[in-house]
Amino acid sequence: MATKWVYLFDEGNRDMRELLGGKGAGLAEMTKAGLPVPPGFTVTTEACLAYYSAGHTFPEGMWDQVLSAMKETEKKTGKGFGDPKNPLLVSVRSGARVSMPGMMDTVLNVGLNPETVQGLAELSGNERFAYDSYRRLISMFGRVVKDVPGELFDEVFDAYRARTEGGGDTDLTVDMLKEIVAEYKAIYKRELGQDFPDDVYQQLSEAIEAVFMSWFGNKAVTYRRLNKLPDDWGTAVNVCTMVFGNMGEESGTGVAFTRDPSTGEKHLFGEYLANAQGEDVVAGTRTPLHIEELQRANPTIYSQFLEVAQGLERHYRDMQDMEFTVERGKLWMLQTRSGKRTARAAIKIAVDMVNEGLITKEEAVQRIEPSQVDAMLHPSFDQKAKDEAISRGDLLATGLNASPGAATGVAVFDSERAMQRAQAGEDVVLVRPETSPDDVGGMLTSRGVLTQHGGATSHAAVVARGNNLPCVAGAEDISVDTERRQFSVDGRVVKEGDLISIDGTTGEVFVGAIPTIDVDFAREQNLATLLSWADEIRRLGIYTNADYPRDAKRARELGAEGIGLCRTEHMFFEEERRPAVVGMIMARTDEERQKYLDELLPLQRADFEGIFEAMDGLPVTIRLIDPPMHEFLPDREELIEEVTRLRCTGENPELLADRERMLRVVEAHWETNPMMGLRGCRVGLMMPGVTEMQTRAIFEAACRQAKKGVDVHVEVMIPLVSHVNELRIEREALERVAKEVMAEEGIEVDYKFGTMIETPRGAITAGELAKHAEFFSFGTNDLTQMSFGFSRDDAEGKFLLDYVERGILPQNPFQSLDQTGVGKLVAMAVKDGRETRPDIELGICGEHGGDPDSIHFFHKVGLAYVSCSPFRVPVARLAAAQAAIEEKQGATFRDK
Amino acid sequence: MATKWVYLFDEGNRDMRELLGGKGAGLAEMTKAGLPVPPGFTVTTEACLAYYSAGHTFPEGMWDQVLSAMKETEKKTGKGFGDPKNPLLVSVRSGARVSMPGMMDTVLNVGLNPETVQGLAELSGNERFAYDSYRRLISMFGRVVKDVPGELFDEVFDAYRARTEGGGDTDLTVDMLKEIVAEYKAIYKRELGQDFPDDVYQQLSEAIEAVFMSWFGNKAVTYRRLNKLPDDWGTAVNVCTMVFGNMGEESGTGVAFTRDPSTGEKHLFGEYLANAQGEDVVAGTRTPLHIEELQRANPTIYSQFLEVAQGLERHYRDMQDMEFTVERGKLWMLQTRSGKRTARAAIKIAVDMVNEGLITKEEAVQRIEPSQVDAMLHPSFDQKAKDEAISRGDLLATGLNASPGAATGVAVFDSERAMQRAQAGEDVVLVRPETSPDDVGGMLTSRGVLTQHGGATSHAAVVARGNNLPCVAGAEDISVDTERRQFSVDGRVVKEGDLISIDGTTGEVFVGAIPTIDVDFAREQNLATLLSWADEIRRLGIYTNADYPRDAKRARELGAEGIGLCRTEHMFFEEERRPAVVGMIMARTDEERQKYLDELLPLQRADFEGIFEAMDGLPVTIRLIDPPMHEFLPDREELIEEVTRLRCTGENPELLADRERMLRVVEAHWETNPMMGLRGCRVGLMMPGVTEMQTRAIFEAACRQAKKGVDVHVEVMIPLVSHVNELRIEREALERVAKEVMAEEGIEVDYKFGTMIETPRGAITAGELAKHAEFFSFGTNDLTQMSFGFSRDDAEGKFLLDYVERGILPQNPFQSLDQTGVGKLVAMAVKDGRETRPDIELGICGEHGGDPDSIHFFHKVGLAYVSCSPFRVPVARLAAAQAAIEEKQGATFRDK
Q1: What DSSP character marks residue A850?
Q2: Which of A527-536, A612-621, A786-795, B541-550 shows the lowest mean pLDDT across its residues?
Q3: Nearest to A676 among B649, B678, B791 (CB)
Q4: What is the Cα–Cα distance from B883 to B690, expressed in whole angstroms?
Q5: Alpha-carbon span A214 to A220, nearest angstrom
Q6: Distance CA A150, CA A135 (A)
Q7: What is the per-residue pLDDT for B55?
Q8: ipTM greater than 0.90
């Protein structure tokens, strides 16, 4: 049987989005529901794809089917396409599976030529209207189908308008419009070397082809990449009988939402313009009525429309975004679709609709994009103020969107001064070439951080994300001069104390202040309700990554059910501990090292006490020291510089001797590829006493809190295991310490020992590892690095983003788990681990733990929990619930 | 049924090595064959293991079985254990599955006490002999079973000996021996606070236990680690009726081989000492007869022994190493086993035995350890001269055995001078703190290379291995001072021009010259014969890694059947090309880069022309550029130093500006983890033109050679692919270039495009990759690095060797493939790759390609070829044949 390329509106329905596009399915559904939809038909997305694969040729049979559909449409309207006596005009519009507003092309009034325009004039009794329609056809067709620059038409039009008294569109006379038509045709001929086609079928055919072509237009391609939409969907083409809102005051056109898309309030929201076509509303030359004012202006039309709108919302069980036209008092529905809305509105509407009995809790949970929850949790710029700033030219640069949220404050170029000015009550944005552990104090008292260098895992980015601090990193266009306390970009200089604004969600850097809108999670009642429904539904536990008691507390407020990753290295980075840490690293004997470890023990213990208290009753997973030792030592390159300088000047030989000694130590610890060097469990195995001290601190803290009545659940995590023996030996040594401490303290606490699965070999041999691990926590960051052989520090700056841009990688695998590759390792390890130890606890604590797509994968693969940064906890709760619902529905993939 | 812990010699046979140990199985087999073996029995290795797992207690039933076996032995000998009238004496000896010479303990003459010694004296009519035996028992028992320091006994013995006229053992009188016995007992009592046991069963029981314990003695553990033998084999204990070679001139003891173990010549080889026990031969106080001299000295005994020896060789079908004792004219066989032999002898014997019809070609091939072939291919020190050097104290240090072979020459501390002195005809050993590409010239004209820093993959090591140049790397004990042209170690100074010797096979560094023994492959007829048999048997192809025509030629002579890896980066390292390479990297535009690429094109083409010519008729696999770009740029740290110094002094501002600019470029290319940064196919994708230039050079060279009649087979290999799109895009671009060139040249050549599988993700997604690859070559070095998360540059120096030493890893996974982890990835990729493309060509080109254990794995997993450095080709040919034989035999693992 021949392929069916064309569907009349009364042949489709809402479930045929993939084939008919969103608009086509909507028109079909409305037609089916008996609503007033102008007759017409849809050319399928498959036809579009076939057009491309046939090398830009309509697939066999398609045009014939278009012709028959036109015949049907003529029959239904009683008009004839190209018939001068009673001409049928049609619109030709794109319609992809999801709405891509303004990204693709539309041609209106197809069917006009010198004869039919006369017929239209006679039939409508409105010659002005007929020629107005004709000139619109020529300019749209020229622009859209033939790439004639739109300005050429606009110039002519503006010139005529300038000659009228009112200066408006409606002030143009019929003669003027006729002259415009003539001039447009002349432009068309001049630009293209051919006449504007009088053959209405040629118009139709070329318009359909133009819509097909627009699928791979620049705008559409960019939009799809930004929204992660696939290229292989194609677009449908809707051919629809023209109805006219520009046939006098009893005519008009409007767009409306069934609820307020900004707030979610339940009332009609939209605009209506009498005696106009759709493009006039968009053009903004006349001010439209608010849709509710229509009630007074034209109660008949209003009530007609209100009824249809309410019916549509009930029918679709979602807030609708509608386009309609009134032609001489008769309402025609041209489009309906689920309306776009702000995050806040989306959540309110979903919760309201559950309360109205319109949708279920599951549906409400499914309707919210996790990114909408995320957006609600960060301060953002007032959009209007931001747009104004952009139009003022205040956008200085765009860097990496390293940590979301918006911040405004005075630029300060030094951590010390940032703290001072912040304490003095100023809002500060810390600006640095890049940050180091010494800057943490300054960062945490600032509103936001801006760095010139560094990627998404740079120190600045990591600290900022962990502290919910907006951060733009690696804004390489700015040049920071810390000595002069200023940065410059394209000759423009921003001095310390000047106001700047940064948007960590987008990476934008502005000069000047932009007002921000803050969020108070506790007061977001609708969100709390929605998330409580998510909690009822989800199976995955949601843990958090928290290194400090305050983070633990905050995460708990946001719904975290445990700590999946408590890193212990920050405890080594703190300034007052550095001498002991450096001493520990430089120690020449085990005894000497032990002296420094003894200094560190009470400090670490105190850290853990606070965390256990904050997580009373919930599990706390503590990872033993992980980074390579040189991270705790001074920078090698700076030392080389200092030593060279001191040698050169000959001054201060004592300092030189000291620095030379330090340099030797640093060189001894220096590694070519530190990410794969002496770190993780290797430190525990090679530097006796360090992890024993940590374990002692953990269990002393646990026992002491337990004695105070805190319900403690300790999980000790051994990182970077590649071979089962590493785990076995470390665990045996540490469990011995744990038992020793519990015996000393005279109390037992609930504890587990486990490992991170973060090297490919760890994943491959998980069955072996499970013999010695009561839990696995997947460290998907490192696992991704080593599986791809991508050093994140290097790759993101050097090629990874380019890879994504060029489509070499479908996504940044550090943001969303690479399910094909890394995911396969995770799935293998889950299976093998469980085979060895059926009750093994399985979680994930990489950054992917907060990414919705990855969460779906982790749900499917059967993990017990995901752990993410505190501020991703609400997002993760929602995503986990959505994953559970989809599983129940048996969906095989997530169709966003 | 109770476990059988004890086997009489007539209950076992040669196939029971695992249970009875090598010696026990040998004694049993000889007993079975009716040869004269003194009656006795073997306590099994299982008993030893049971002893350990029961916490150092004999397993249940064992001792009773020993007692019954003793009864049987008494019956067979007609003697009684502890019977003063006719005392039975026994030896108690260890006997593991494989021989561990001198590593474990032996006690002789068990069964003597004040009564039985009298009986022995009477029965033998030789009181001197009886007390000599008794004093031997006390000292051996004291030393071996009770850890009494042997010197205590030796001092007494030496003192008595000094009092005699002759000063020899046999000069001691009976009374002296009685006094010695008394003094030995006093020492025993003083040291241990207990009397020497008179209870002969206590003697036996403690002696057996001592043998068990010696399995975990330091010496034995060290030996096993060095020889990669497992700890869980345990040792058997052989209890054997004593026979006495020290009962007069018609008695004696000897050890002999059926063929010469140094040369393989077919004649008896060994030593015989009349009127002596075995330990006297070892002690070296008397000079034994060469075994062939026995023919004149005692033709009866000689002919008896010769017949037995020949019979044993025929029986075992291998050269035998035998111990025997003659007691009053009667021959007793105490041990037989396959004899150790030099590499050269092993090969000659194997080939001879095939020619004698004694063994098959397969057996000959199986008998040779691949390491023996390797040893034959490198010059080595004359062992005696080396031992003398060690005893002189000339061993200065031991570094990493980075590239095998021995070299002697004058130490030179600079590459330039090394070339000059070498051209002047001197043998040079280049000594450097570490080497860089600038040193290659000096290295290649030297006899060997010694570096203070750097591991097994340091520049020095890699270049040396690739050029068969002996190299000791990372000899951290020496301190090289290039300015003073000397190195020092423990205060000892070696100046330029002083003679030194290095052994790259062991890592030893000597002062002074040690004569070396060279090898000429072409003249090793036996080896050639053996390898030709291996070639008939093996299924795996043996390719080579060769970057230069001369390497290709050499490898071909050694039997290589193709090039599996031709690296192209050396072509970028060569001095005269550096400006173009640096220019290419620093280029700001694609056009600028193209200019430099155009300069490089003819140079690369010339490189390839030579290689295609050398490999006429064989495949040549060329890997496109792989290392990160910064490797081609100056050293970052040196630049920082230089810039700092220039800034400080203020002189030469032009030079400073130039260096600052260079430093900026270096910084821009600098990577935190270069191993996982912008390298491999990523360079091709991110730096347009580079791999296109390489492909053009390859195909221009191929076409031009083809026109000259060379049979060219090009395989272009795209490295470091993680995602199928990387491969697809690179391949499409490069195949386009290839076709272009062939069209230009007007000739087609045979070619393939393929990829390296060297990232874990590459292996996991091999099924996808195979769609775009006609071949896979496993890059197991990188695959090992990324699977474990071990950066080889860092790990080997910092923890890996320690890991192996401590048993955390069973072996260095960079030397022998980690079959459990990395091997699983290889197996997956093979399976998935073949599923997608059944005729895909599969090979491996990592260093593991030359490692015999790994070769067995690659055979099993079904690869088509392994590729290794030219000098490993013969080794690989042999190992591949052995793998094929074992497969045929259905062996599931390789039992060395």
Answers
A1: G
A2: A786-795
A3: B791
A4: 41
A5: 7
A6: 13
A7: 87
A8: no
